[in-house]
């Protein structure tokens, strides 16, 4: 990795440095290789460490680098293509190598913005289903699915108070509702401590947050807040409105 003169560059220094580093990643480093520490890199390129961090953060956001606990900054592998289906059939199935795996379900208050979408009292406890999604052995997304008790009234007969069994029961009852539609939003966020741990990220790492509201004829039945690794996933929308994740030039479309 060579040096470069940045003083005369008109664009922001960190942006030019990002370009230089990106070229070096292609020519001088292998996937999984650990980069030199920040002090050495900053000295090599003649920039302040703050400038270097900005460039590294941008490369991480673009999926070129990964910051790993106890390891350091490594060259990231190519992004994994993961088709994201919003078909509620997955709630009933939950099988397959790339299916959402239910981990737990508890009763808790929903965050105020979620309670507003659900139309419930902020003090009201709702079912909170926690799921994780793996693809090719790598955790790529974590989800919290908020379900009001009114959406799954028959669940009172289920004895399991929490855990995967309870989670599957909530999902099965939700599946039986026969959803009529959904809307969703996508925004860039920072990994919370719980999500970071499940996704093998550092707290504060860039993530993509997909919020989906599911409807029945009677109103909102559930709200999903799914957190995706920004360094692993790229979100696109097909003509049908279905949400997809792919690193391919022409991703396959998923019907909603």
UniProtKB/TrEMBL annotation:
InterPro entries listed in its UniProt record: Bact_HTH_transcr_reg, Chorismate_lyase_/UTRA_dom_sf, Tscrpt_reg_HTH_GntR, UTRA, WH-like_DNA-bd_sf, WH_DNA-bd_sf
Protein origin, superkingdom: Bacteria
UniProt entry tagged with the keyword Amino-acid biosynthesis: no
Keywords, alphabetical: DNA-binding, Transcription, Transcription regulation
HTH gntR-type domain ranges (all copies): 11-78
Pfam hit, one: GntR
Keyword DNA-binding part of the UniProt annotation: yes
Transmembrane segments: none
Protein name (database record): Transcriptional regulator, GntR family
Source organism per UniProt: Streptomyces globisporus
């Amino acid at each position: 990795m060579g040096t470069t003169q940045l003083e005369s560059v008109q664009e922001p220094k960190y942006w030019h440095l990002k370009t230089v580093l990106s070229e070096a990643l292609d020519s001088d480093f292998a996937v999984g290789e650990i980069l030199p520490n920040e002090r050495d890199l900053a000295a090599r390129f003649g920039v302040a460490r703050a400038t270097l961090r900005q460039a590294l953060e941008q490369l991480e956001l673009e999926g070129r680098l990964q910051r790993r606990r106890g390891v350091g900054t490594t060259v990231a592998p190519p992004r994994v293509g993961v088709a994201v289906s919003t078909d509620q059939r997955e709630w009933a199935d939950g099988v397959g190598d790339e299916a959402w795996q239910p981990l737990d379900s508890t009763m808790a208050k929903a965050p105020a913005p979620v309670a507003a979408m659900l139309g419930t009292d902020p003090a009201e406890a709702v079912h909170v289903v926690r799921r994780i999604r793996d693809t090719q052995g790598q955790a790529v997304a974590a989800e919290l699915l908020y379900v009001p008790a009114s959406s799954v009234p028959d669940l009172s007969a289920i004895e399991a108070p929490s855990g995967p069994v309870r989670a599957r029961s909530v999902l099965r009852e939700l599946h039986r509702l026969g959803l009529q539609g959904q809307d969703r939003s996508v925004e860039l966020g920072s990994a919370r401590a719980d999500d970071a741990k499940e996704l093998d990220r550092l707290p504060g790492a860039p993530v993509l947050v997909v919020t989906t509201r599911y409807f029945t004829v009677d109103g909102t039945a559930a709200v999903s807040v799914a957190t995706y690794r920004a360094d692993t996933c790229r979100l696109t929308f097909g003509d049908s409105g279905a949400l997809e994740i792919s690193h391919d030039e022409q991703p396959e479309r998923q019907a909603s």
